Amino acid sequence: MTQTLPPPFDPELAAALGVIHEMLPPFTLDSLAEARGGGAVAGPTDDELRRDGAFTVTERVVPGLGDDPDITLLICTPTAAAGTLGCVYHTHGGGMVIGDRRTGVDGMLDWAAQFGLVVVSVEYRLAPETPHPGPIDDCYAGLLWTAAHADELGFDPARLIVAGGSAGGGLAAALALRARDEGGPELLGQMLMCPMLDDRSDTPSAVQMDGLGVWDRQANLMGWSALLGDRRGGPEVSPYAAPARAADLSGLPPAFIDVGSAETFRDEDVAYATRIWQAGGRAELHVWPGGFHGFDMMAPAAAISQDARAARVRWLNRLFS
Amino acid sequence: MRLAALDADAGAALRVIAYFDSLTETRAGLQAIVRGAAVLAGCAARLDDHGRRVHVRVDAEGNAAPAPESVDALWMRTLLVPDGSAVLALERTGEPGPVEAMILERAAGAARAVLDRTRGRAPAADPALVELAVDASAPSDVRDQAVHQLNLAVAGVRAVALPTGPALLPPGVVPSWARAGIGPAVVPAELPASYAAARVALRFAADGTPEDPGPTVVRHDELGALAVLADLPAGADVPDLHRLEHATTAAPWALSTLYAYADAASLRAAATALRLHHSTLQDRITQAAHLLGWPITTPAGRLRLQVALTLRRLRRHP
Predict the structure, then answer these.
(1) Residue A193: which of A228, A167, A155, A215 has the closest Cα?
(2) B151 and B222 co-located in one domain
(3) Which of B78, B101, B121 finishes a domain?
(4) Fewest Cβ atoms nearer than 10 Å: which of A83, B15, B32, B128?
(5) Cα atoms in the Cβ-side hemisphere of radius 13 Å centred on B205
């Protein structure tokens, strides 16, 4: 394709980007240890998760798939919710290579408080130490356990959604595919926030934004290589690793997909929503102009970030009401 | 990014500079600028442009709070325009620290650029509201509502009398009108009284021209007992005014010389103000005193001169 100018960043996001670049760890395989230990990706503490008693926080160690090691689930239950609870099963982001079960849970708690949801966040093993299918297997094992223990956790299994951002969005999309294919839990919805879906990373947006913004093409290729090794970009990649590879996107739970116009994932995320519609499915797509990857989390105060969060809440409101 | 994590070090200041430079470069709007100030400072921030009736308020989380609460005179603030009709404030009291000062300076610079760009389209302040606020005959609740609509419901506000009509001066703001009388600081309910005093003060304010030398902005607070001169009936015959008129007609330089002499702390200071050699000034003073018909170098004579000059100004500005 002809190299074209990238879309400009939103003014507020552009101003924040300078600070973000100072604070974000560099994304290379060599510097992973540093990135994993850095404070920039630290999740909330138990005390922060409790939100002055609004939630109880527990952890459960549950079996992995087959002979896989046990996995830990972080479970936050609203203490004051009236009526039937739902559940948001959360797969954290971090390019498949960093983050833990606490990463991004804050945002889940906002929804949980508003809609009466139990939050379950899974500690899946990370690449490159654990390549595909280890991470998605861990996520799926946790989903199976969660759905099977709905009574014990106190939620209505008909009100179970999966949600994740970035790599977590890709994992959530993969969970929906796998639950469909393997007769797993019925999901009420899938919340895919700027999801990482396509290991080929060769769309116009991936090329256009190379070297720009957050999580550019080089970082993305690093993440996929960590997960897939030599299989990345080849013919044999499983849709449970890279949901964009799924040939059939019919029969999926309603999807919410959002993405920035100025990020690597724009075109693969737009394509995923489009293919869901073409397959006769339900999807809501938001493309936020001038948004870089993860803008609403990294620059939460910006007007466009507020709007992006509000759009998710409105979708959840329609889903749960 | 948690910009609130910024601390008061040099790096934080550099980030503040880069942040607002970027907003200006990308022509971000006023709300983005005020939001930047709020988020960077970790407290609500607001821009109140009374002239253009632009009010933007954003809380520390970046949410627009479109119904501004009343202002606190002790907030950290900076003026966007010299006359104080547009103010950018952080809703935090006390002396600004280095980062807060940097935020105010940079956000004000960015906001000024936006206001300048959009000035032509901005609506003017509603003079009717200001007139209501200072109108003693208006019911107090109507006045109160007007003050709130002007976003000036704050103790320490002053009424200002301009040749064109009333204006209001928020606390802590330096006026820069061409000619104005400024009333005492009051609670909003007492603005009519402040305005009455401001109108008296305006009569003491000169045009600042060779024909009307004198202070152009006069505070009623500073008039003291001189204020009673304003009560002199317009038709009262004051012989000293005739003598002053005679002197200024006879010698074109007399008025400015007499005013400079009456107003200055010393002969030398007056000479400096007039850009004259002090011996030249000495000669002129002798000549002017002769034209006036009374000595002006004695304390009593100088007071008589000052009163005559003041009465002349009051007659020019009835």
Answers:
(1) A167
(2) yes
(3) B121
(4) A83
(5) 23
Mean pLDDT value across chain A: 94
Q: Which two tokens stand for residue B304?
A: 């008589």
Q: Do B35 and A302 touch (CB under 8 A)?
A: yes
| Contact check, Cβ <8 Å, B35/A301 | yes
| B103 and B19 belong to one structural domain | yes
Helix (H, G, I), strand (E, B) or coil at B25: helix
Cβ of B32 within 8 Å of Cβ of A303? The answer is yes
DSSP B160-214: EEETTEEEEE-TT-----SSEEEEEEE-GGGHHHHHHHHHHHHHT----BTTB-S
Q: What is the CATH number of the domain that holds B275?
A: 1.10.10
Does any CB of chain A come closer than 8 Å to the CB of residue B23? yes
Burial class (CB in 10 A: 0-12, 13-18, 19+), A49: buried
Whole-angstrom distance, CA of residue A20 vs CA of residue A31: 18
What pLDDT was estimated at residue B7?
45
Q: Are residues B10 and B84 in the same domain?
A: yes
CA A227 – CA A229 distance, rounded (Å): 6
Which residues in A154-189 are b (16+ Cβ under 10 Å) and which e? ebebebbbbbbbbbbbbbbbbbbbbbbeeebbebbb
Looking at B51, B86, B121, the residue that finishes a domain is: B121
Domains, chain A: 11-320 (3.40.50.1820)
Q: What are phi and psi of B284, to 5 degrees?
A: -65, -40
Q: Could you read off the pLDDT of B64-77 as tens digits, one per residue?
A: 887 666 777 788 88
Q: Give residue-wise pLDDT tens across range A79-133.
A: 987 789 999 999 999 999 999 999 999 999 999 999 999 999 999 999 999 999 9
The C-alpha atoms of residue A292 and residue B91 are separated, in whole angstroms, by 31
Domain co-membership, B9 together with B114: yes
> DSSP labels for A267-300?
HHHHHHHHHHHHTT--EEEEEETT--TTHHHHST
How many Å lie between the alpha carbon of B1 and the closest alpha carbon of chain A?
A: 4
Contact between B64 and B43 (Cβ < 8 Å): no
Do B10 and B110 belong together in one domain? yes
Q: Within an 8 Å CB–CB cutoff, is residue B45 touching chain A?
A: no
Indicate if B248 and B153 belong to the same structural domain: no
Gap from A296 CA to chain B (nearest CA, Å) = 10
Same-domain check for residues B60 and B86: yes
Q: Which domain holds residue B170?
A: 127-226
Task: With CB atoms and an 8 Å threshold, state whether A15 touches B36.
Answer: yes
- B113 with B142, same domain? no
Interface ipTM: 0.80
Buried b (16+ CB within 10 A) or exposed e, B277-294: eeeebeebbebbbebbee
- Please, are residues B274 and B284 in contact by the beta-carbon 8 Å criterion? no
> Mean pLDDT throughout B92-111?
90
H-assigned helices in chain B: 10-25, 30-41, 98-118, 127-133, 140-149, 191-203, 220-223, 239-250, 254-263, 267-274, 278-292, 299-316
Q: Do B1 and A19 touch (CB under 8 A)?
A: yes
Q: For A219-245, how does the pLDDT look when each residue is reduced to its tens digit (9 = 90+)?
A: 999 999 999 999 999 999 999 999 999
Look at A302 and B62 and tell me if their CB atoms are within 8 Å.
yes
For B215, the 3-state DSSP assignment is coil
Cα gap A95→A196, rounded to integer Å: 8
Counting the structural domains of chain B, the total is: 3
CA distance B110 to B223: 40
- Tokens representing residue A219 in the block: 């970082």
